[in-house]
Design a protein that fits this description.
The chain is globular and about 50 Å long. It is built from 8 helices and 16 strands. The strands form 3 sheets. An 8-stranded mixed beta sheet has the order 6-16-15-10-11-12-13-9. The protein has a 6-stranded mixed beta sheet with strand order 2-1-3-4-5-14, with helices on both faces. By secondary structure, it is of the alpha/beta class. Strand 1, helix 1 and strand 2 form a beta-alpha-beta unit.
């Protein structure tokens, strides 16, 4: 049975199990803290949030210890790191998964590796969505702003999120937006079949660049998770590509297939990507088609997920109904 964290969210803990915020960007984190305080949250910030050196916020054990301190601190209701990074994987060996109590952890990018590992090892639901730095704006767009209603959904209840109206094509930090993102491009969810698609199952996923490295480790035992926490149920994978070429993406997905990650799968969702560079004419669209034929699964892509904002909040372990039609989509999650 999946364990869902408490829904009383009053105090946010900010720690950096991957990258922290260097001095030159402290103003971004300060803005985010001030904004969430204005929104009524209390904030507890760890040392690692403010430091960054050698591609990480601190040595692996310090990052892990601070994260566990926040996980075990009853005064903290939810942990939202500043952002992702590169080397979160170094911390996993120092985390006490057996000692973790259910508490929301929210983030994406490199953080998705931690989220997936926690859910697979413990059955605790984790939340793939915005980071704290992207919550520094005067207001949130409708898609990003759903993170709080989603995480406050009561056990046994459902929450529905819809595809965004527009997405951000590129970052423009020199021209700050009231909602942080510059949402200029019409959103259109697509399917490999070119027709409407509906599928359901337990959500698992994240940034493929990093979660692929869990394969073959004690932190990526998908089959054991299925048997212990969701016996007999299917999985819906939600995945996004941050930096890989199309062929590297295909290699990674093939590795996931060989590891059995796509067994008992009902469908796959792929986020928009600014990477997905074709190799010798091999495009992401053709790769999605090949994957759909190989696995015999429905695939939807260019959805609101990952590094091309905004993004829907996906809860690892939650039961989801996915519907894609006419370029739009809905994700209905049930906390059961």
């Amino acid at each position: 049975m999946i364990r869902y964290p408490e829904k009383t969210l009053k105090t946010i803990g900010i720690t950096a199990p991957s990258s922290g915020v260097g001095k030159e960007q402290h103003n971004l984190l300060e803005q985010a803290i001030a904004r969430q305080q204005q929104n009524g949250f209390q904030i507890k910030t760890g040392e690692t949030a403010w430091t960054q050196e050698l591609a990480k916020s601190a040595p692996a054990k310090k990052r892990a210890d601070e994260f566990m301190e926040m996980m075990n601190n009853p005064e903290i209701d939810i942990i939202i790191p500043p952002w992702g990074g590169e080397l979160l994987i170094e911390t996993l060996e120092y985390l006490d998964f057996n000692g973790m109590q259910p508490k929301w952890v929210l983030g994406y990018s490199d953080l998705s590796l931690l989220l997936l590992a926690i859910t697979l090892k413990t059955g605790i639901a984790t939340a793939h969505g915005t980071n704290i730095v992207d919550l520094r704006g005067e207001k949130s767009d409708e898609t990003t702003g759903q993170w709080l209603p989603v995480l406050k959904t009561e056990d046994g209840k459902t929450v529905t999120q819809s595809s965004s109206a527009h997405f951000q094509k590129e970052w423009n930090h020199s021209d700050p937006s009231p909602v942080v993102f510059h949402l200029t491009e019409p959103t259109r969810w697509k399917t490999v079949s070119g027709t409407d698609e509906t599928f359901s199952g337990r959500l698992l996923g994240g940034c493929i660049d990093v979660i692929r490295h869990l394969i073959g480790t004690p932190y990526g035992e998908v089959q054991a998770f299925r048997e212990q926490y969701i016996p007999g149920e299917q999985v819906v994978w939600y995945l996004e590509n941050c930096e890989m070429s199309v062929t590297d993406l295909k290699r990674s997905l093939t590795g996931m297939k060989y590891a059995g990650w796509f067994e008992d799968c009902s469908g796959i969702l792929f986020g928009r990507s600014a990477a997905n560079e074709p190799v010798e004419g091999y495009t992401a669209e053709r790769m999605y088609q090949d994957l759909a034929e190989d696995l015999g699964l429905p695939i939807a892509y260019d959805i609101d997920l990952g590094h091309v904002p905004p993004q829907i909040t996906f809860v690892n372990g939650a039961y989801a109904d996915i519907h894609v039609a006419g370029g739009k989509g809905t994700v209905t999650q049930e906390f059961k």
